[in-house]
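ok so I'm stuck.
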Amino acid sequence: MIKRIVSIAGKPGLYKLLSQGKNMLIVESLQTGKRTPAYAHDKVISLADVAIYTEGEDMPLAEVLDKIYSYTEGKSIDIKGFADDAAIREYFGNILPEFDRDRVYTTDIKKLFQWYNQLIAAGVTKFKDDEIAQDQAAEAAEKADEENK
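replied:
not stuck anymore, here's the structure
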């Protein structure tokens, strides 16, 4: 599911990718449901392409969102309820203790929490894509068909 959710630089909120036209994408706002075009000059990033720096390898955003969902028991996060930046970093440290404290900025964590809240409000609770496994199974089936010919 997260593969079809995008962020567009300069536009607030998250969008669901609906279709692709010539030199543009058709997207729908998760908050308002309003459809709008995203043109080739817009910087569009799929949430599936985002990762969080950790002490080891970077962690895909879907895994981080799953950890947040488990930690909060599916509830949204009150970002304004934190006293200061240190409190936000400490809270995120409880969720993902191995995050790289030098390369992950407080603004990144706030943005992550905002995205999480928007996804939860839109009813998105499954962050990892089963599409990847389905695509791999379809490719394997096609390969087997070709080999059997």
